[in-house]
Amino acid sequence: MPTEAPLRAPLFQALASETRSSRRVTLSFNGEPLSVPAGISVAAALLLSGIERFRATPVSESPRAPYCMMGVCFECLVTIDGVPNRQSCLIDVAEGMQVRSQEGARDLPFDMPVVATLEVQP
Amino acid sequence: MKRSTAAINADVIVVGGGLVGTAVAYGLAREGADTVVLDQGDDAFRASRGNFGLVWVQGKGYNLPDYARWTRSSAQRWAGLRDALLADSGVDVSLKQPGGFHMCFSDEDLLEREARLRQLQVAVGDYPFEMLDAAELKARLPLIGKAVVGASYTPQDGHVNPLKLLRALHASAQRHGARFVGGQHIGRIEGSAGDFRVWAGEQAYCAPRVVLAAGLGNPGLAAQVGLHAPVAPNRGQVLVSERVQPFLDYPTINVRQTDEGTVQLGDSMEEVGFDDSTSTGVLSAIAQRGVATFPLLRDVRLIRAWGALRVMSPDGFPIYQQSTTHPGAYVITCHSGVTLAAAHALRIAPWVMGGAQPDELAVFNGDRFLSDKVLAHAH
Predict the structure, then answer these.
(1) Average pLDDT over every residue of B98-125
(2) Less packed terminus of chain A by CB within 10 Å, N or C?
(3) Which residues on chain B are in Cβ contact (under 8 Å) with A106?
(4) B133-160: per-residue pLDDT in tens?
(5) Distance CA B31, CA B25 (A)
(6) Chain centre to alpha carbon of residue B136
(7) Which domains occur in chain B, in start order?
(8) Pick from B139, B142, B242: CB nearest A85
(9) Keyword Oxidoreductase on this protein (chain A) (predicted)?
(10) Cβ–Cβ of A116/B245 closer than 8 Å?
């Protein structure tokens, strides 16, 4: 898993005139704790924290970050609290949220009890 | 004959730039014909952008073995088409032909399925298939749901990425010199016997041969050159999911996982005229059937849904015919532009260039619809 430590100052900063909340919440991204303003989207929070690689694409594994910030482009997909492929631009931050980069296509819940294989005995 | 200086001349004019027209044009251009493809635009009903991507043989041609033979001849040539497209365009259309499954949800379905395939085997001869009960199916597809009581499997079936196919056909045809002209609304077709003039607004296109591959636009065009092509829309709706890790190595009639990870669901057929919208009732039925087939899809997110219109003749089979009153004018129309792409590129094109008609095609004359027989879809 690549580390996500920003190499330079974040590309994005909150507009002072738009900052209505002084409250902050703590979430984690790939295990690293981040303190971010409350009341903003997960995508905005990650960008403010200097994170530029949200996911790797399923086909070519190239890095991606949010593009449209309005729910259309699906570039901002992350795993949130264990649920894969969430559109981080559409989800508000919450205290204790565990966010992980979306590494390629999601896994499926292969719920295959051992008994399933016993059914196919000839 | 003296032609207008404004006219554009070619050896063959193909009307229609979808999978059918472009496959034929690719074959023609490979044969060295100077080919012009006239495409309408995104205001048209574009079946080639809305299909399911199956290269499907099993079950097709029930009551018409020549359709089974024609379909199989295309499936057998598909690997060659894939290789040619890759060489000409650099596009890998992701063909896989591992065989395919048709799921049955009741014992009656399973018996009817077996009877259908048995009859095809008797009619066609070499026609391998297997009927699988629930346990046998689970051994092949461990993730299958309990609601599936069995399935038919034939080794002839496969699938491709249909959007990459359309792009590969366009690029490959152009690589061989075919000229594509977009935004062309075809009005009149004039001329006869090897001297045709196709009008798009004020622009005339002239050629000794014209191929009508305009999908749902064919009926009005065909009538102008002595051909009968009474095709009508039949709507299919499709759901597509988020990309997920590979879980399904085979195409099935109602669920397939694409080469890039999405899951496509859909096998609906509706007669609703020129309406390619979606409806909640049909989409929910498709989704329920998909989840019944593979229960692990229950928690997978759907990201898009669409409707598209099949190009359906009254009996569900294709129409392939050269005009007797206007020799050099052909109509080529079907609802399986993906499956039949190889036959269209490799077998129809030589026929249009003056070769013999492929021998399976005699029964696909559009004039069969000139009688008053009542026909039922049997595709």
Answers:
(1) 96
(2) C
(3) 242-245
(4) 999 999 999 999 999 999 999 999 999 9
(5) 10
(6) 31
(7) 8-51+164-230+315-370 (3.50.50.60), 100-155 (no CATH), 232-312 (3.30.9.10)
(8) B242
(9) yes
(10) no
Among A75, A77, A107, A108, the residue to mutate for chain B (most B Cβ within 10 A): A108
For residue B135, the chain A residues in CB contact (below 8 A) are 119-120
Residue B232 has pLDDT above 80, yes or no: yes
Which of A58, A85, A108 is facing B296, going by the closest CB pair?
A108
Please tell me the predicted confidence (pLDDT) of residue A2: 52
Amino acid identity of residue B77, one-letter, is R
Contact A105 B244 (CB under 8 A): yes
Residues in chain B within 8 Å Cβ distance of A74:
303
Banded model confidence at residue B376, pLDDT cuts 50, 70, 90: low
| B284, pLDDT greater than 60 | yes
- pLDDT score at A122: 39
Q: How far is the C-alpha of B317 from the C-alpha of A5, rounded, in Å?
A: 61
Quick check: B129 pLDDT over 90? yes
What's the pLDDT band for A92 if we cut at 50, 70, 90?
very high
| Dist. CA B110–CA B171, nearest whole Å | 43
Q: Where are the alpha helices (DSSP H) in chain B?
A: 19-30, 65-89, 107-124, 134-140, 162-175, 218-222, 280-293, 341-343, 349-352
Nearest chain A CA: its distance from B355 CA (Å) = 43
pTM as predicted: 0.88
> Which of A77, A111, A120, A121 should be substituted to probe chain B, the one whose Cβ sees the most B Cβ atoms within 10 Å?
A120
Amino acid making up residue B368: R
Residue numbers in B near A117 (CB within 8 A): 142
Query: Which residue ranges make up each domain of chain A?
Result: 23-105
Question: How far off is chain B from A44, nearest CA to CA, in Å?
Answer: 22
Q: Which tens digit of pLDDT belongs to each residue from B47-105? A: 999 999 999 999 999 889 999 999 999 999 999 999 999 999 999 999 999 999 999 99
CA distance B86 to chain A (A): 19
Contacts of B312 (CB under 8 A, 6+ apart): B231, B232, B233, B234, B335, B377, B379
Return the H-helix or E-strand segment holding A25: strand A24-29
Residue B87: count other Cβ atoms within 10 Å of its Cβ.
Answer: 10
Average pLDDT of span B323-337: 95
Decide if A116 and B136 are in contact by the 8 Å CB cutoff. no
Mean pLDDT (whole number) for A38-52: 95
